[in-house]
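Field notebook, page 471. I keep forgetting to write these up properly, so this time I am using the form the group agreed on. The chain and the ligand, magnesium ion, are recorded exactly as supplied. Prediction of the bound pose follows.
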Amino acid sequence: MMQNRFDNTICAPATSRGGAVSVIRVSGMNAIRCVDKFFRGRKPLAEAGGYTMHFGRIVDSDGALLDEVVVSVFRAPHSYTGENAVEIACHGSDYIVSRILSLLLSNGAKMASPGEFTRRAFLHGKMDLSQAEAVADLIAAQTAAAHRIALKQLKGGFSEELAGMRAELLHLASLMELELDFSEEEVEFADRKQLRELVGNVTAHCDRLIESFRLGNAIKNGVPVAIVGNTNVGKSTLLNALLGEERAIVSDIAGTTRDTIEETFNIDGVLFRFIDTAGLRESEDSIERIGIGRAYEKLSSAQLVLAVLDLAAPVPEIVASAEEISSHLSTDQRIVFLLNKADAVPVVTTTAARKALSHLLATQGRQLLIISARDRIGLEELRNSLSETYRDMDAGAETTLVTNLRHVEALRNASASLRRVQEGLDSPTPVPTDLLAQDLREALYHLGSIVGEVSTDEILGNIFRNFCIGK
Ligand SMILES: Nc1nc2c(ncn2[C@@H]2O[C@H](COP(=O)(O)OP(=O)(O)OP(=O)(O)O)[C@@H](O)[C@H]2O)c(=O)[nH]1
Ligand SMILES: [Mg+2]
């Protein structure tokens, strides 16, 4: 029986170590009874109503005082998980927390697995799956924009939008089923023009959400910025300088960085994901070649490319490298050419190099800056340029932005199914309605999977595995 899955009571610390107060969360049918075994307050918690707080002592099995605590009592279904729940706020000591946890365990509770509280909240209908995922996003949010999107999703904004789309498709499906029922009599009940319009609207809506992922993902995971260039030009030095820490190894040996290194960094409220890559060159070394392959992948998938050029190299070499990198760009990618090591060359060299690159700067979205990554010259200008370009990245509060890969994949599948329906409706030779209805059901299935209307243990396992324990 479904209910049996939740018979057990789970517990976990809900706060991280090091604070003045720690909170231990307990949830399950027996949560209140379990805590009563070692909590001594004015009266047993079993007599307490929901949403009440109680001061008391925690005593161990010998009756010895362990700590003075405040517990909050929640009664099903009015709790985060929808179950009976208790939150014990004790003094923030690892020792006390571990002793209380062992008291809970010896009184029948078990340690919660990652995300188990939220998983129970989902399974008890307290929130849908996309809202459960938003809980993790909210906690991980590093910028105001990411916080806003997660909060909107948590409040059910995205779910409502999906519910609207699903309702339209269900209406469409019912029109088609009607036609199906009477197909023997060869009656076309549903007006095909109206059907086409309905499918068209939902498909367009789906595609808009898919398109929003680019921005949504950049806000949540950082705008991808690839740092590329030949070996030894100072890419890793630049990464370290931007982050303000020695993240990547820097050396004068060409080919020092072999794999990509990614770090996020917040500049004026915009999250960037800087990606240091292996220097581009012909290499005999098979591992280095894999790294160079990855560098090209990052180059073509980044929103912005920092092309690092070495001023100490001969000008024709600089130009060749800049041209090579540019040739891999698509029109919607921005590029900043960085003439690095300005400290090491006379101004005439810098001027000559800048002039030789002018033909590459004619295109929109391109810029050239002169820097010294080693001496931190010109980096402030680079940072300003980055944050100015992406400052307006937060689309208005009204727009829904998809930030989750699982969601965008489901939307892509739904969109593909809807396109098949559209093609069927447009086809000069009539496609049987039951085939169209089948594609429509598939689209509904994919949209439903986002909110967890259809979910398997495997899907849930994948989602909640990435949560922390205690969430
Ligand atoms: N003079 C000077 N030297 C620099 C500057 N930036 C980097 N270097 C030096 O150039 C050498 C290579 O620097 P890295 O940052 O390792 O270069 P890279 O592009 O990451 O090299 P690979 O990982 O091998 O592709 C090191 O000796 C750095 O100290 C700079 O602005 N001025
Ligand atoms: Mg490097």
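OBSERVATIONS:
- The first helix runs from residue 31 to 36.
- The mean pLDDT is 91.
FOLLOW-UP: compare against the apo run.
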